[in-house]
Design brief:
Length: 154
């Protein structure tokens, strides 16, 4: 089990999706949380529950101080790391994050116009691109002995 300082939360949405995060807060009717190297928010009405996890949650953009602790815990002395194409990962991440942010904006716009079909489509894209960032991150961690390189969060 992880130390309590590295435990996190799982935001359970009414649509069945679960969003792992190391930290969340409420702000202006939204649940805000760390996600994909930034901060995301979702309307409070969309949230079914928020549960504290005893195990460490997926790394979705942990602030630098907590991230450094995780990296130190995961390092294996003398471990060789696989060659990583940094430019590829940076470009892919930038693309997915850009698409993720655009989808979220479309979701908010569709919500304000009460366009249910557009809202659902944007939400699917939002989840898809958010998932792509996490998949890319997990792939990178596997190549880097379970640790995200420092440049990932820059």
């Amino acid at each position: 089990m992880s130390p309590p300082s590295l435990a996190g939360y799982r935001i359970k949405l009414k649509n069945g999706r679960n969003l792992p995060t190391p930290h969340y807060w409420e702000q202006k009717g939204e649940i805000r949380f760390f996600w994909a190297n930034g901060v995301a928010g979702i309307r409070k009405e969309e949230v079914l529950s928020i549960v504290q996890e005893e195990e460490e949650v997926a790394d979705v953009g942990i602030p630098p101080g907590r991230k450094a602790v995780q990296e130190l815990m995961a390092l294996e002395p003398g471990a060789e790391k696989e060659k990583i194409d940094v430019e590829y990962y940076q470009k892919q991440k930038a693309y997915y994050v850009e698409q993720y942010e655009k989808a979220y904006e479309r979701y908010l716009d569709a919500s304000s116009h009460q366009d249910k079909a557009a809202k659902e489509k944007a939400w699917k894209e939002f989840n898809h691109y958010g998932g792509q960032v996490i998949s890319l991150q997990e792939e990178l961690k596997k190549k880097n002995k379970g640790v995200l390189p420092q440049w990932w969060n820059q």
